[in-house]
Amino acid sequence: MASAWLDNLVLLLISFFGYGAGVATNLQARYAGADLAAPSRRGRAVSTVLVATTIGAVVGPNLVSVMGRVAEALGIRALAGPFLLAGFAYVAAAVVLWVMLRPDPLRLAHALAAATAWAENGGVTLPGPTTAAARDTSRSRHYWSPAVLSGAGILILTQLVMVAIMTMTPIHIQDHGHHVAATGVVIAAHIAGMFLPSPISGWLVDRFGRLTIAAASAITLLAGGLVAAWSPPTSIAPLAFGLILLGIGWNFGLVSGSTLIADSVPLEFRARAQGTIDLGVAVAAAAAGLGSGLIVSATSYTALALTGGLVALMVIPVAGLARIRHKTSEFSRI
Fold first, then answer.
1. Count of domains for the chain
2. CATH code, domain with 175
């Protein structure tokens, strides 16, 4: 808001960096939902957290015009208005987390695991990963299995494809003379596709397996890319449908990949591994946002959407990595 009022691009970029950090941290909440879930229900636990974002995610883009008028009344550019609402939303979220997320799910999971191990060993505490030496080891080494690499690849590829196409869609819409409200409708439909199917996708992951739904993610993303590419530029409805498919494909990938990671990373390394993987997801999103503009400038939105759909098919062989077995149960070191 301040950068728009001051017409300062540097301040805008700094604020976007902080805003993006908040979004990345917020996305980690899906793992908190799985920390205390039984393995057979982890997909549904991840999806429960995701579906809780649906109302705000769908309503938010449709408040662009309303918040724009509020911003103009304050003497600020209209398109800066939604960030005023975002600021209030983040403050409210911070208060809820500070007051209600006690005890921390991961700390409680550690305590329950320690209590279980103590009981299984007849009340004898055995040296384990909670010792100082093990903690020092975890700081200097990363342990990965093919399943973890597979989950990371699924998340990175689905994020790459989704962000690349989504980023250029509002520009594509406005380039063909549609009002900003039409952009809000299409993005709202897309975000609904990203989060609204979460209960179903969580159940599907638990019922049919992580890799099956990851493959479904690739096919759905391909379908979304094809529909978006071939949508008439004068019609909003087909483009909105393509973006809905794109969101559903992303949701399938996020839930299946996240659940696969939660299944495969030992508890003592879980937070570090999840954060590292989400860093890769964030880098992929940044690269997609930058690269999508270059692709559209050099070719067209149609070419971008088709390319994204084809790239999504790489999820299928990446998911297959999870079927590689280890000689031991210990994670491979790289």
1. 1
2. 1.20.1250.20
Alpha carbon distance 241, 55 (integer Å): 19
Give tens-digit pLDDT for 156-189: 999 999 999 999 998 888 776 666 678 878 888 8
Range of the domain at 185: 2-117+144-324
pLDDT higher than 70, residue 4: yes
CA 144 to centroid of chain Cα atoms: 21
User: Does a structural domain hold residue 224?
Assistant: yes
- Under 8 Å CB-to-CB from 289, ≥6 apart: which residues? 163, 164, 167
For residue 45, tell me if it sits in a domain: yes
| DSSP-derived 3-state class of residue 31 | helix
pTM: 0.78
If residue 144 lies in a helix (H) or strand (E), which one and from where to where? strand 143-144
pLDDT, tens digit, 9 for 90 and up, residues 266-324: 887 888 888 899 899 989 999 999 999 999 999 999 999 999 999 999 999 999 999 88
- How many angstroms separate the CA atoms of 229 and 170, rounded? 14
- Distance, in Å, from the CA atom of 210 to the CA atom of 132, rounded to the nearest integer, reads 34
